[in-house]
Amino acid sequence: MTHTISPIRSDTPSFRTHSFREHVWRYKVVIETTFAISVLEPWEKVVFLIVLSLLSLLLATGCVRFLPLQFVGMRYRLAYYLWGNEGNMHPT
């Protein structure tokens, strides 16, 4: 007589409550495996994260400083295309 274990048990990871530390660790592992950071040496990881942080900072700066100006220009362009108003296209 063989004893079979049910595939769904209460002590499996899907039913366990996880701590915040475990969630952070899982997120870290997912990011490292997605971008293959886990195969890098520690100094390469630091360089990669610095470059990634700088690129993220540039993107955020562009969104905060230049995107609102683009929306203003798009508003006047949209008014021209919808209503054909050529006069007073740009604010003074």
Automatic annotation (TrEMBL):
Name assigned to this protein: Uncharacterized protein
Highest taxon listed in the record's lineage: Eukaryota
Matches recorded under InterPro entries: Ser_palmitoyltrfase_ssu-like
Subcellular location: Endoplasmic reticulum membrane
Transmembrane parts of this sequence: 46-67
Pfam families, sorted: SPT_ssu-like
One cellular component term from this protein's GO annotations in UniProt: endoplasmic reticulum membrane
Record's keyword annotation contains Membrane: yes
Main localisation: endoplasmic reticulum
Keyword vocabulary terms for this entry: Endoplasmic reticulum, Membrane, Transmembrane, Transmembrane helix
Membrane topology value: Multi-pass membrane protein
